Amino acid sequence: MHFSQSLLACLFASNTVAAGVTGTAFGFAAGTTGGGDVEPVYPTDIDELTSYLTDDEPRVIILSKEYNYISSEGETTEDGCRPDSNTCPDDGGQDAINGANWCTNSDYPTVSVTYDKAAITPINLGSNKSIVGEGDKGVLRGKGLRIANGAQNIIIQNIHITELNPQYIWGGDAITLVGADLVWIDHVRISLVGRQHIVAGYDASPRVTISNTEIDGNTSWSASCDNHHYWALLLIGEGDKITFQNNYVHHTSGRSPKVGGTGDGTLLHAVNNLFEENTGHAFAIAEDENGRVLAEGNVFINVVTPIEEGDAFMFSAPDASANAACQDPLGYVCEVNLLTASGTLSGSATDFLSGFSGEGLTAVAASQVAASVKSNAGVGKL
């Protein structure tokens, strides 16, 4: 049975499983409860917020204002580098901080970089947390979140993460997953980051759902020199399972997403998303790794290259006849994608579709997606 987007929204809104949280986690992250029904806390400043996020107590943390970490840890000036991609240094290109020795291990020319230190080190979350914005007020400025080393049962909902050294590659990641479990990222907006909006890898994060989230690539500093952010979504965990549904990914130029991973790699269900205004590629699936993608019921508008270099690890749901392959493992016939003023989307691999058995989703027709996603994805839209 296929539900309409509006019906799904009503069902989610009417079923609150945790204090402060709207709706119920679904897809691979079904069962995530975050802080449960503990009494919500309202942090007064960044120090109290950091304490709540990192302690060992179940927490429902309500963000009712902006928490600005910029300058809280000072800034530094050091040697970085100018990558080949920065062909427009005087007109909005991205130079690079020496993250992961990226500059040291290259022949890129050295340049001086001055950046805010807070964005380089994300906050490491403890388990059993709900982080929820109130209305459209919940803003995390200049600091990202990291869920790692066995942290689990976390809900991030209705917050805006922004301004992580956007002028520099390696300037900061907004949300990082490394060896996490039961994570639901919902109605989040991410903008103006230096590196990845969301990155998952390398250790397995086997139950993750990203939904109703806005990946906003508008920027004045672009690795592709066109005000579109290149470093959007990097999903390279070993054995990750990710539901990616009802999201709005726009004004990017690459890695939207890049999918791979060693071992079992990342299994990604990209369903009913809107990809719009991408001057490069949306999907990049590493041929020497094991990223596997089912893409169905998505809309691509002005996306130059919906998938980069081949189709070996994607099922692109091309037509009703081919899409019948979804029936046994998923319980329904997959929905065809819709492409407007875009390149082609290809991929005929089906041997991994059994991995989606039990995910518990249905898709709607792509014709219903664009208006619904623009109305519902991001902050202040619960």
Description:
By secondary structure, the chain is mainly β. It has one domain: Single-stranded right-handed beta-helix, Pectin lyase-like (Pectate Lyase C-like, 3 Solenoid). It is built from 5 helices and 28 strands. The strands form 4 sheets. It has a 15-stranded parallel sheet that branches. The chain is globular and about 60 Å long. The two termini are 25 Å apart. Residues 1-16 have low confidence and may be disordered. Keywords: Carbohydrate metabolism, Disulfide bond, Glycoprotein, Lyase, Polysaccharide degradation, Secreted, Signal. GO terms for molecular function: pectate lyase activity; pectin lyase activity. This is pectin lyase.
